[in-house]
Design goal:
The structure is a single chain. About 35% of the residues lie in helices and about 20% in strands. By secondary structure, the chain is α/β, with parallel strands linked by helices. The protein has one domain: Peptidase C15, pyroglutamyl peptidase I-like (Aminopeptidase). The strands form two sheets. A seven-stranded mixed beta sheet has the order 2-3-1-4-9-5-8, sandwiched between helices. A two-stranded antiparallel sheet has the order 6-7. Strand 2 and strand 3 form a beta hairpin. The two termini are about 25 Å apart. About 40% of the residues are buried. The structure holds pyroglutamic acid. The site of pyroglutamic acid has 12 residues, from strand 4 and helix 4.
Length: about 220
């Protein structure tokens, strides 16, 4: 591929959910032209086994100038910018291949943590200025999203200076509405027991990701 590309990845649904907001955002930013770069959107399987080959192939095929990965963090109320990836794979639920890992690593003989290389403070400022709630996070979890950030950051392209980062997204409002509806019919938990009722509109999440891309492509620090 010729020209300058910004790779944006999201994930297919997982954990018994029918939708993943990250995939919805990816399909809406795919093909956009932002700050002289063409956005290439890809939806990844929630599969630890497929992850490394997927990342390697995407880096080779697209040769991106920037990588922004997206995923759902149920209950998150804001756009959540991940600062660090851990070399730890410790799942609470199986991935979509049925794999459950405990106290395992993402990469063998590799550093225990790698910092994301997006200009997070500049992104935070730009999002707040645009009226979009955002916060920095020191944990991308220990499931597929963390493993994805770690794997991108561990590539030779990242070591050579390609900026890579991860943005966790809230639920879509209709997902929370469906959760509330299900709760009402099942009557198995009380409303005050649930901490995963935050959501954000798809349009706001798409605007946020456009800003993340624009700032990452232009900010010098
Ligand atoms: N969120 C999960 C994996 C896929 C997704 O969208 C996570 O936070 O690891």
């Amino acid at each position: 591929m010729a020209g300058k590309f910004a790779l944006v990845t999201g994930f297919e649904p997982y954990g018994g959910r029918g939708v993943n907001p990250s995939a919805e955002v990816v399909t809406r930013v795919d093909g956009l032209e932002i700050e002289g770069a063409r956005v290439v959107g890809r939806v990844l399987p929630v599969s630890f086994g497929a992850l490394r080959a997927c990342v390697r192939e995407l880096m080779q095929e697209i040769d991106p100038a920037l990588v922004v990965s997206l995923g759902l963090w149920p209950g998150e109320p804001t756009i959540r910018l991940e600062r660090v990836a851990l070399n730890l794979a410790d799942f609470e639920i199986p991935d979509n291949d049925g794999l459950l890992l405990y106290d395992d690593v993402v990469e063998t003989a590799a550093p225990s943590a790698i910092e994301a290389t997006l200009p997070l403070r500049a992104i935070e400022r730009a999002l707040l200025k645009a009226g979009i709630p955002v916060r920095l996070s020191t944990s991308a979890g220990t499931f597929l999203c963390n493993a994805t950030l770690y794997t991108f950051l561990h590539t030779e392209q990242a070591a050579a200076g390609v900026r890579c980062g991860f943005v966790h997204l809230p639920y879509l409002p209709e997902q929370v509405a469906a959760l509330l509806d299900e709760m009402r019919s099942k009557q198995s938990v009380e409303l005050h027991q649930r901490a995963d009722l935050a959501s954000m509109s798809l349009a706001t999440m798409v605007d946020a990701v456009r800003i993340v891309l624009a700032v990452s492509l232009t900010a010098t620090t």
